[in-house]
Predict the structure.
Amino acid sequence: EIVLTQSPATLSLSPGERATLSCRASRNVSSYLAWYQQKPGQAPRLLIYDASKRATGIPARFSGSGSGTDFTLTISSLEPEDFAVYYCQQRSNWPPLTFGGGTKVEIK
Amino acid sequence: QVQLQQWGAGLLKPSETLSLTCAVYGESFSGYYWNWIRQPPGKGLEWIGGINHSGNTKYNPSLKSRVTISVDTSRNQFSLKLRSVTAADTAVYYCARDRIKMFPDWFDPWGQGTLVTVSS
């Protein structure tokens, strides 16, 4: 099973600041990695897939990069609605499909 | 625009069987894999398994012995059964579609989630 480790667990930032979230895979997942955003009481929403492709309707301030074992989600300038929990997920090696433990982006 | 609407019993006793159903609206059922994912309170996400319109299933090995996912194409619905539940199965359960007609792909869209609590 591929383990995804996300860091930091919590990121405290102000609106307008840049957010950089990390996801590290226990084995090479090539570019088969996605990022989801989850707000309280809501289902997760797909943001980025195949490491760097924005899902439909996702603003350009969200970008993904990386390949192999190290991946980054960047939010270039935080909007109030971006404060949420972010999860990475891999589909390179399955079963099972696995998720990271999440990074909470909170208002400083 | 595809919508997933799910329902099922929200309170179970230990050893009972969890049963949830997800209905698909606004989209052809065929060609996609349809998945179940759960999230214990305050914790991360765990993929349970998926099924396509032909009934081909993929399961998480950690749950495979207790899980059955089935499909009813006449109603555009798929269902989850999890046997012999314990408190560790307390979670919000989500249904979700694969983004494109290929397995595995990314989960998009998702249902609204159903909280299932296991307590004596």
